[in-house]
TrEMBL record:
Keywords, comma-separated and alphabetical: Membrane, Transmembrane, Transmembrane helix
The protein, known as: Large-conductance mechanosensitive channel
Domain of life (superkingdom): Bacteria
CC annotations in GO: membrane
InterPro entries reported in the protein's UniProt record: MSC/AndL (IPR037673), MscL_channel (IPR036019)
Lineage: Bacteria, Pseudomonadati, Planctomycetota, Planctomycetia, Pirellulales
Stored PANTHER family: LARGE-CONDUCTANCE MECHANOSENSITIVE CHANNEL, MECHANOSENSITIVE CHANNEL MSCL
Location of this chain's protein in the cell: Membrane
Organism: Rubripirellula reticaptiva
Membrane topology term: Multi-pass membrane protein
């Protein structure tokens, strides 16, 4: 299935539990990306 269609179904359903799970997963993903950028990507760039 298409991600956009799945998101429309999720958004139109309006289930608060799904919203809380999505928020939690999004926050965890954001922290992983921030750590990746700060610890892996930026040091070589700063070195150059």
């Amino acid at each position: 299935m298409n991600i956009v269609e799945e998101f429309k179904k999720f958004a139109l359903r309006g289930n608060m539990v799904d919203l809380a799970i999505g928020f939690t997963v999004g926050a965890a993903f954001m922290s992983v990306v921030k750590s990746l950028v700060d610890d892996i990507i930026m040091p070589p760039i700063g070195f150059l």
